[in-house]
Design goal:
With 75 residues, this protein is mainly alpha-helical. It has one domain. The chain has three helices and no strands.
Length: 75
């Protein structure tokens, strides 16, 4: 029974706003990102998407290259 009360108090502490993010903080962060990068939100999403896709593709390429090198050395 006390676990439910503890969970409720923790979530109540974390969710102190009706929104998922504090609107004042989000506006400040958004303004700072716009000031620093000077890019639109769509541009930032595209860049982050490319980086997110490039990292695992690069890791796979390195793993395949290493596997190919080890196969050549064994023969």
């Amino acid at each position: 029974m006390w676990m439910g009360n503890a969970f409720a108090s923790v979530t109540g502490l974390l969710l102190h706003h009706a929104e998922s993010v504090d609107p004042t903080l989000w506006e400040w962060i958004s303004d700072k990102i716009d000031d620093i990068f000077g890019l639109s939100a769509v541009s930032i999403v595209v860049v982050l998407g490319i980086v997110t896709l490039a990292f695992p593709i690069g890791l796979m390429a390195l793993a395949l290259r290493r596997a190919r090198r080890s196969r050549v050395r064994r023969t």
